[in-house]
Amino acid sequence: MSSTRSVRLALLGCGTVGSEVVRLLHEQAADLTARIGAPLELAGIAVRRLGRERGDLPVDPSLFTTDALSLIKRDDVDVVIEVVGGIEPARSWLIESLRAGKSVVTANKALLAEDGGTLHAAAAEGGADLYYEASVAGAIPLLRPLRESLHGDRVTQVTGIVNGTTNFILSSMAATGAGFDEALEEATELGYAEADPTADVEGFDAAAKAAILASLAFHTRVTAADVFREGMTGVTAGDMASAKEMGCTIKLLCIAQRGSGVEGDTVSVRVHPAMIPLSHPLAGVGDAFNAVFVEAEAAGPLMFYGRGAGGRPTASAVLGDIVAAARNKLTGTRAPSESNYASLAVRPIGESMTRYHISLDVAERPGVLATVAGVFAQHEVSIATVRQSGREDDAKLVIVTHSAPDAALAATVEALSRLDIVRSIASVLRVEGGAG
Amino acid sequence: MSSTRSVRLALLGCGTVGSEVVRLLHEQAADLTARIGAPLELAGIAVRRLGRERGDLPVDPSLFTTDALSLIKRDDVDVVIEVVGGIEPARSWLIESLRAGKSVVTANKALLAEDGGTLHAAAAEGGADLYYEASVAGAIPLLRPLRESLHGDRVTQVTGIVNGTTNFILSSMAATGAGFDEALEEATELGYAEADPTADVEGFDAAAKAAILASLAFHTRVTAADVFREGMTGVTAGDMASAKEMGCTIKLLCIAQRGSGVEGDTVSVRVHPAMIPLSHPLAGVGDAFNAVFVEAEAAGPLMFYGRGAGGRPTASAVLGDIVAAARNKLTGTRAPSESNYASLAVRPIGESMTRYHISLDVAERPGVLATVAGVFAQHEVSIATVRQSGREDDAKLVIVTHSAPDAALAATVEALSRLDIVRSIASVLRVEGGAG
C-alpha cells in the first residue's frame, strides 16, 4: 500500500461510541494524518436502520448502509471498526473481516470474553491485527501496557474497578448512607445506569472485562465462563456503615490472580463486591471512574485510572487503536499476536484465599460467642475481629476472619446458618486488599 | 533473521539497573522466549572496571568487557541496552549503534532531554528502534501509552510527580511536620536520596523527564533547556502547615500544557513545587511513588501510578522495551518513529496561568491590608483569600490569588517586597490543580 493513498475504514455501528468516533475522525483529521502518514477515510458506516436523525454528524450521509457484510467485503476497506456489541452478528462480521486480512478494532468485551480465541485465530489466519483497547476500562490505556509494556515482567495480580455504573452506586452509598435501591435510582436518573441494569449490577460486564484482563496479564486464555461472579445488589447501607467502622469502603472488584497448585501454575478470576481499606489506592476511585491495580514481580504495584465508559472516552481508545492498525497497514507490519502460551488451569473460587466479613443476627444468651467461635475453629478459619452490638432479642455479631480458602469460609457460613442461636445471616462480604 | 536464532543483546552498564536487567533476563528466560518467539542472549556487558565483585549475577563472567565500543560494533549484536546514564560517552555509543541499525533501549533521561533529536535522527538513519520507557517514571508504563494509545486523541495537559526522592521528602514533611533538612536527612538514611541530592531537590531530574513527556504528549520537540525549573529546597514546615489549612498538600510537579498564542499553538513546560488540593488524585501519591496525570480532550483525565525508581522496577520497564525491540527485529518491523510534526513554540513561564500563595511578614498597623491589596490590584491580580495572624511586631499575612499570568504574579511579589510595611516575604508557592 502506498503512503499516498488513504487508509479506509468501515465503521460498524453508529450509536454513542460510533458517532463519537465519526466526530473525532473529523475533528482530529489533520493530526491523525500527520501521525499516521496518510489520511484516514470512512468507506462506509453500517447501521441497523437508515433514516434515524444523524444530521449533526460531520459525514456524507451516503456513507450509511444497512448492509454491513457487503461493506466489510469491499476491497477498498483496510480496517473494520466494530462498536455494535453483542455476540452475533458481530462475531461473524469480525471473523469475515480478519480472515480477509482486514484489521479489526473493536470495543466488544462480551464477544472477546466469550470467544476471543476464535477472533485471534481468524486474525492469525488472515494476517490481520485485532485491537480491543476500548473493550476494558474505556479511555484508560490499559491493554496495550499489559500486551506490551509489561512483557518483560511477571504479573501476579490484577485488581480492578472496571464497571462505572456500580462504582457510581457504591460511591454514592458510601457518601450519603443511601441503600442500594435509592443509589441505583439516582444512577439511572443521571444516566449512569441503563433501564435494565442487570449486566452491570450482577457483575456480567465486569466478568467479561476480567476475562480479557486475565488473558492478557497471564498469557493464557480465560473466558467469561471461567470467572466466578457475584453481583452487588445485596450490598446494604448497613454493610457500608460496617465497612466505614473498619476503615474500609466497598467496591465491586474484579480480581485475577496467578497462583500455583500441585499441578503447576494456575489462575483464578473472580468478580464480587469486597471491602477494601481506605488506604488502598482503589478506595479513592469515586464516581463512575474506573481504575486497575496491577502487581508485577519486578515493577511492583501499578495503577491505571480514568473514565471507563461514555461515548467520547471510549472513542478515544478506539481512535488510538485505529491509528495503530492504520500505521501497521501502511508499513506492512503487524501488532504482537495473541500470547497464550502459558495455558494456565483455572482455579475454582473455593481455592482462592480471601477474608470474610460476616454479620449475624443472634440470640443474646451466654455461650453464643463460644458456640459461634467453635464453628470457625472447626473449619480452621481464624477470626481477626469480633464486634457485638445490641442486646437480648436483637443482638448482632460482626466477625471478620483472617485469610482462608473461600471454600472453608463458605462452609463456615453454611454451618453458622444451621445453628439455632443464629437467627439470620445478615450479610457476608469478602475483604480484600489488606494484610491477611 | 530466522526465528530459530537468538536475539543478541549488548548491555552497557551493570550498576543498580543493569544488574537487575541481567537477573530478570535469567529469571524470566523461558517466558521471554515464549513471548518473543526466540531466546534473548547477552552478547556482552560493558562496565567501567573489570574485577568488581559481580559473583552473584547469573551470567558468564567472560561476558564483561571495558570496551563498550567494540561490543556495540559486533555484527552479532541486535539490540543495545544503555543504563550508564549521563551525556557522554552514552550519546556517542547510542548514535553509533542506531546508525548501524541496532535497536536501542535506554533509561537515559538526561541524554534524551538534552539531545533526543540527534538520537531519533540516528534511529531513522539506521532504520532502528529507539525505546526509552524506563527514562521517565521507572516501572510505570507511560511512554508507550503516550506514544501509541493516545494517538487518536489530543492531550491538553500532563501533570506529574516524576521524582521519587522529592516526593518522599515532601510526603514525610506533610506527615510529620518536619522541615526540609530533617526530611532530607531521613531520605538519605533510607537510601531514597543520593549523597549529593542536587539533581533531585533542585528539579533537574524532573525537568529532564518533563521535556520527554511534553515531547511525546504534544508531538513536538522540547529539550531540558525549554523547561522552567524551580527546586523544592525552599519549602518550609510553615508552608506545609499553611497548605494543610487550605485543604492542600505540597508536591514537586512537572506541568506540561498545550496552549494557544497569537502565533498559533504553543507548549509550556515547568517544574516547581506547588500546593494542590487533597482531593486531587496526585495528592494521595505518597512515599517515593510517582504518578502522572494526563488530560486529553476525548479521554478526559487519566492517571498512571507506580514506582518511579529502583533497580528492579526500572529494569521491568527496560525488559518490556527489550521484548518490543526483539520482536521487531525478528519480524523485520519497526516501532512508530518520533512524532514531532507539531513543532510548537515554547511559551515562557511568564505567560503560564497559575495562582500564588504568598506569605508576608508585615508591620501591624492600620492600612496595611489596604496597601497590600492595592499592589495586587495595580497588577490586575485578583485575591482569592487573605488570612492574617499574629499581632504588632509579628503579624503575618497569607494571601492566595486567583489565576493570573505568572509574570503578573511575580511582578506583584516584587512590588510587595519594596513596600516599607512588608518586613519580609516568607514564602511564595504556586497553587495548582484546582479551580482558578
TrEMBL record, chains A, B:
Q: What is its EC number?
A: 1.1.1.3
The portions of this protein that span the membrane are none
Example GO biological process: methionine biosynthetic process
Top-level class of the enzyme under EC nomenclature: oxidoreductase
A Pfam family annotated for this chain is Homoserine_dh
Q: Which cofactor does it need?
A: a metal cation
PROSITE patterns on file: ACT, HOMOSER_DHGENASE
Annotated L-homoserine binding lies at: E194
NCBIfam families xrefs: PRK06349.1 (NF004976)
Q: What is this protein called?
A: Homoserine dehydrogenase
